[in-house]
Amino acid sequence: MKIKPRKRLFIGLLLGLEVFFALGLYILWYIPSRGYENFGRNLSVFWGWIFGIILIVFTLGVVFLVAIILRGREVRGARWLRGILVRYLLPVITGVGKLFGIPKDDIRRSFIEINNELVRSSSFKAPPKRILILMPHCIQRDVCPYRITVAVNNCRQCGKCDFNELTRIADRLGIEMTVATGGTLARRVVVQTNPELIVGVACERDLASGIVDTYPIPVIGILIDRPEGPCVNTRVNVQKVNDALETFLSEHSFSGEKEAAQASLS
Ligand code: SF4
Q1: Which among 61, 67, 78, 166 has most CB atoms closer than 10 A?
Q2: 208-237 per-position pLDDT tens digit
Q3: Which one-letter DSSP state was computed for residue 138?
């Protein structure tokens, strides 16, 4: 089985976490066990069993998670494990990565990749009205005078930035697109619109935290390109956004529009 490099990083750190955890438990057991001898051997054996059981449960969780990541789909009955992966493991894995000098953004990219694969393979579908596209403001050309943060329809589709194509796709598919100026606003939009599915475009930090904050709503995250540096005149692969939307659309809805969107991109 070929494992994508981005996935490999997260799996490697997950296994590193397992080693740290086992070592920590061993030390927790070993040092006080010297003192346990004063109370008899049984106390040392008792704590040995307790820590052993904790380690077995933790190891089974890690094995399950690695299996889910490698298969690229959820193991039946293990949806809660994906919740643990999304909600709790990212900060811990980031901490382990820091010990090895791995940049945070590399870990976030790996996490986003794994999340996207799990979401794609879970076959989530929704009608267009229940899907939300969340865009960062920095994609808009910095000299553009139109206020698309108020209403994305204010875009005149002049072709100078990627909103030209993105607004066309959203219109054609009948999917709501919102331009957020930051993570707080994006979270507010999610609360207000209550979507079933989200396609989010942002940088590594905003995407990773957005995926965590909006769990259990399925999110496909697409990273921006920064040819002129961070937060100004950024770009996004429009084809990837289109593909993500197609992944989410119910089969019966908008089949004609999906083809039209594909045609407009080719
Ligand atoms: S495509 Fe729209 S948002 Fe982009 S520069 Fe032109 S008018 Fe502004």
Answers
A1: 166
A2: 999 999 988 999 999 999 999 999 999 999
A3: G
